[in-house]
Amino acid sequence: MPRYVLRVEYDGAPFVGWQRQAEGLSVQQVIEEAASALNRGRPVEAVAAGRTDAGVHAAAQVVHLDLDREVEPGTVRDALNFHLRAHPVSVLAAGLAPPDFHARFSAIGRAYRYRILDRRSPPALDRGRVWHIPRPLDARAMAEAARVLVGRHDFSSFRAASCQASGPVRTLDRLEVQRVGEEIVIEAAARSFLHHQVRTIAGTLRRVGEGSWTAADVARILAAADRRLAGETAPAAGLTLTSVTYPDGLCPV
Amino acid sequence: MPRYVLRVEYDGAPFVGWQRQAEGLSVQQVIEEAASALNRGRPVEAVAAGRTDAGVHAAAQVVHLDLDREVEPGTVRDALNFHLRAHPVSVLAAGLAPPDFHARFSAIGRAYRYRILDRRSPPALDRGRVWHIPRPLDARAMAEAARVLVGRHDFSSFRAASCQASGPVRTLDRLEVQRVGEEIVIEAAARSFLHHQVRTIAGTLRRVGEGSWTAADVARILAAADRRLAGETAPAAGLTLTSVTYPDGLCPV
């Protein structure tokens, strides 16, 4: 059974998230149904690098799946897009993967972007893509506080109660905050993230941006390893999975 | 009756266009209803600088309307946004205008952006915001052909049959084509445009980009003053009104 790897873009708004749920439509389901149509009706399982939550977007999710027979990768991409046309999900690229390639377990890095629209008026063109904060935030203070979180730490304060990861220790390789016009853009990269980690970081940095907390407060919150101390979980709509990295040469897309 | 001027952002997708129609929801209607709520229920007429078609977006439409009593401009902005919250329409700024200010007739310039997504795979995140052209376009050839159209010309070849303007002559001040990543972005500016002018230009430049036509063909099409010779009217979704200009100091937003 040849293994294919896909790079996939999606708008998370209409979905219950990547993963199949008892109720509601998931990105996994629409991709598996499209792949099954291409696989002569036989079921196909799709595995993603990052199991994005409901409403979270992807600019470059990586997915693997096995087909019964070998199909030219360009045909896989185009056929999947044909079957996906009713949904805001697009296969940007497809490639034949080594048989031991695993979208999730082979990945050595994930990057996310969190967008805050920092202006008085609500978004019209970017509805569902940003967190709207009507009061002015201090992006420089947020950037300074972000530096406290970079590195290897116990991130218990920034982890959802629902998090199923075995431990709370993660290494945050990058956490940058920049003002870009009316937006404040947070870019985060790590080998892997805890559940809601980026959104809890965004909710915490917002408190710094509005002047309620300082970088020293964020350091204290981190050290306390207590979720009740950090800021709110920022809305899913502002979050986009922007890239997934693999060891050199392993991922063909 | 104090006159207010608004800078307004909207997603054109759910609307029949700026202007009220017998059927369907217009941007004008939702703004007039919001303004009426602020005007103690008395009807308000809203006049826009550019009467955008169904599906066309605005990053900075300019609108004027009169209220029965004077209200602080920041309150006008916030109250309108409160009443508009069910719709992807946002008032970015409001100001008190001179009584003879007219959003449409006082304007001395309009600028539009047309976005083409030039890649094999369809858009997911930019659905409804771009024209998807799956085959590679030559942006440099498009930019060269665009230069033919700049200046004062009879634009009959680039005018909808439905155009109600008194004459077909317009002065195109700017028409630039640039590749930006996977997109080809067309920026157009003029004192005023004919109906469908930017979209017909985009449809024509696309034919140049795919190699069917040259800049010389575009010059011939322009000179012929015959709509049947130009390219198709590009889809509304790719078009955004990006700015409206007024004589110095006239427009407070």
From TrEMBL, chains A, B:
Lineage of the species this protein comes from: Bacteria, Pseudomonadati, Pseudomonadota, Alphaproteobacteria, Acetobacterales
Gene name for this UniProt entry: truA
Domain Pseudouridine synthase I TruA alpha/beta, chain residue ranges per copy: 9-105, 145-247
NCBIfam families registered for this protein in UniProt: hisT_truA
Family from the record: Belongs to the tRNA pseudouridine synthase TruA family.
UniProt-annotated catalytic positions: D53
Listed InterPro entries: PsdUridine_synth_TruA, PsdUridine_synth_TruA_a/b_dom
Name this protein carries in UniProt: tRNA pseudouridine synthase A
GO biological process: tRNA pseudouridine synthesis
Taxonomic superkingdom: Bacteria
Record's function text: Formation of pseudouridine at positions 38, 39 and 40 in the anticodon stem and loop of transfer RNAs.
Enzyme kind, highest EC tier: isomerase
GO MF annotation terms: RNA binding; tRNA pseudouridine(38-40) synthase activity
Catalysed transformations (reactions): uridine(38/39/40) in tRNA = pseudouridine(38/39/40) in tRNA
